[in-house]
Write a structure and sequence with these properties.
37% of the residues lie in helices and 20% in strands. With 615 residues, it is of the alpha+beta class. The strands form seven sheets. It has a seven-stranded mixed beta sheet with strand order 9-6-10-11-21-20-18, with helices on both faces. Strands 1, 2, 3, 4 and 5 form a five-stranded mixed beta sheet that branches. Helix 6 runs parallel beside helix 10 and helix 12 runs antiparallel to helix 13. This is ABC-type uncharacterized transport system involved in gliding motility, auxiliary component. It comes from Halopseudomonas xinjiangensis.
Length: 615
């Protein structure tokens, strides 16, 4: 009885201590949290803290969530709780400069009218007839508005970025001005010759518009307007000589430049490119400017990389193909020393070119995106009417060099036009420090290379699986002088590749590709010879076939079945290593880990018992 009493008393004391600890922590440490996720997904980043601490005037945030209407939606309510907690953290860090209003818009109420007035997206609930609101609106002292119409579950990884973008937009009403010159339908509206209809704006362009004022410039201009903070060139293949001279002078005067050029812009469906019907009809360059800035670039060469090649679909019923011209750049290929690329994890490129520093140049070249040593340069003409991407593997020999897909150029530079242009003398001949970022690929900005679009009740919901859009925004943020959002944006949702599995796939493909091709050829030859035999035989005389003919046909049928069986075996072996890895992971998770834990407990118990005996 004593033991039970002491045991019960001890449990009661522990319970009271636990309750006291929780009450004390809630009072003394209301904002304390321990975030053990790899990317600190539940911790406000330094960039967000900087944005909130720099607020000079109050901002009102109105969080609308239909609490009663969503009572049976557990997943959505958990997400809404996370949004609310993060907004409360914003309010705490801002120290009075954010006023948070949490609103449950009941049907036919003034709150529901206000949600509709802000432009929030209402989702009808078919089972109850009510409408579900789950969005955010913000206003500043100038009565300007920013809205997140609906927090889609698929974009949970982008939550902090979206919140910080909204606050930052309200805190800085005057957005940096971006001058855009492009030879691609990045803003949408251009007629698609294949579909016969105008296209939607690219998601990358829409994101730029959210954060910057975009001003479209003509490709034949002779001067960059003084109001332009950053000049953005995307596939500038139609730049006139006067425009190149203007870009030269803009950079030397201290203007910031972000240029996307390409040896094969696969997204270029312009009439000019269609008429040319050649790879070089889709190339873009910057004339003499790159050499003046210390970079060499050949618009007729594409980088292939067998290590980074993407797996692409070849259609229904066919195995995916390895495309070594479409590349997935992982963190190891991205510079962790530059604020533009350091937060990124995965970028995709399509038929990108190579930038090479010129020896003895006065500028400083910082690599941003690089290939592996398992790469080589090939003529861009190999991409003309490319049908099967695996043909790029034919004759491929890596040259053990790393090529630059992207670079930052800084330091002293001289004009590319020392003699001027058509009677125009250069106003600036030299600069102590230029700041230029060059990327040798434009297709990476197209939606298909990094984002999927879903339609949610008429609202376009982008779901990024790579960081291509982040690269564009980070570079513009950095060049325009605003770096606060960069660390926030890097927390966006992206595909985390199974690197071990992908390496196993690559090895299996190399091992069995030759066997599969040989068997496919044998099968095609057997089917051809069998068809010839059957065509030679008159259908009305099938019963009169000789024994030799019957044996020949049967032999070819048996050979066909045997080859098809070997093909199935080869394709099965493609995934054998991956299945073996999965089996070992199951063994480790199901048996090994519990066994180790049990063994540890037994050892602890045994050691404790020995100590008690010795005492």
């Amino acid at each position: 009885m004593k033991r039970i009493m002491y045991s019960g008393t001890g449990l009661l004391v522990l319970l009271l201590a636990f309750v006291a600890f929780n009450m004390a922590s809630n009072v003394l440490l209301p904002g304390a949290r321990l975030d053990l996720t790899e990317q600190n997904l539940y911790t406000i980043s330094d960039g967000t803290e900087q944005i909130l601490e720099d607020l000079e005037e109050p901002i009102d945030l109105y969080f609308f969530f239909s609490d009663r209407a969503s009572k049976d939606m557990v997943v959505l309510r958990n997400y809404a709780r996370r949004v609310e907690e993060m907004l409360q953290e914003y309010e705490r860090v801002a120290e009075g400069n954010i006023r948070l209003h949490i609103i449950d818009p009941q049907p036919f109420s003034e709150a529901e009218d206000r949600a509709a007035e802000f432009g929030l997206q209402a989702i009808p609930l078919s089972d109850t007839g009510e409408q579900l609101y789950f969005g955010l609106a913000g206003t500043n002292s100038l009565a300007q508005r920013e809205v997140i119409p609906f927090f889609a579950l698929e974009q949970e990884g982008l939550l902090e970025y979206e919140l910080s973008r909204l606050v930052n937009s309200l805190a800085q009403p005057d957005k940096p001005e971006i001058g855009l010159i492009t030879g691609l339908p990045i803003a949408g509206g251009s007629m698609n010759p294949m579909l016969g209809q105008g296209g939607e704006p690219w998601v990358a362009y829409e994101q730029v518009q959210q954060l910057f004022t975009v001003r479209n410039l003509e490709a034949d201009l002779d001067e960059i307007p003084a109001e332009i903070d950053v000049l953005l060139l995307v596939h500038p293949k139609s730049l006139s000589e006067a425009a190149l001279f203007a870009v030269d002078q803009f950079v030397l005067r201290g203007g910031k430049l972000l240029a996307f050029i390409d040896p094969v812009a696969e997204a270029d469906q312009s009439q000019e490119a269609m008429i040319a019907a050649m790879a070089d009809g889709k190339s873009s360059d910057l004339g003499p400017l790159l050499k003046a800035w210390g970079l060499d670039y050949n618009p007729e060469q594409v980088v292939l990389d067998a290590r980074l090649g993407m797996s692409v679909s070849r259609g229904q019923g066919q195995l995916p193909a390895r495309h070594i011209g479409w590349l997935e750049l992982e963190a190891a290929q991205l510079s962790d020393d530059d604020t533009v690329t350091a937060p990124l994890q995965l970028l995709t490129l399509a038929s990108g070119g190579a930038l090479q520093p010129i020896e003895g140049a006065s500028t400083r070249i910082t690599p941003l995106l690089t290939s592996t040593t398992n790469s080589a340069l090939v003529p861009s003409s190999r991409f003309t009417e490319l049908r099967d991407p695996e043909t790029l593997l034919d004759g491929f020999e890596p040259d053990e060099k790393r090529y630059l897909f992207g670079a930052r150029v800084q330091g002293p530079a001289s004009t590319a036009y020392p003699e001027g242009l058509e009677g125009r003398e250069p106003q600036v001949v030299e600069s102590d420090n230029i700041n230029v970022v060059v990327i040798a690929d434009t297709d990476m900005l197209t939606d298909r290379m990094w984002v999927q679009i879903q339609d949610l009740f008429g609202q376009r919901i982008p779901q990024p699986w790579a960081d291509n859009g982040g690269l564009l925004i980070n570079a513009l943020d950095n060049l325009s002088g605003s770096e606060a959002l960069i660390s926030v944006r890097s927390r966006g949702d992206f595909s985390r590749p199974f690197t071990v599995v992908e390496e196993l796939q690559r090895r299996a493909e190399r091992r069995f590709r030759a066997s599969e091709q040989r068997l496919q050829q044998q099968l095609a030859e057997t089917e051809r010879r069998l068809a010839e035999l059957q065509q030679e035989q008159d259908p009305s005389q099938l019963s009169e076939m000789s024994a030799e003919q019957e044996q020949a046909i049967q032999r070819f049928l048996d050979e066909k079945l045997a080859i098809r069986k070997q093909l199935r075996d080869v394709r099965f072996q493609l995934n054998a290593d991956i299945e073996r890895l999965g089996m070992w992971l199951k063994v480790i998770n199901i048996a090994l880990v519990p066994a180790l834990l049990t063994l540890g407990v037994l050892l602890w118990w045994g050691i404790g018992r020995l100590r008690r005996r010795s005492a």
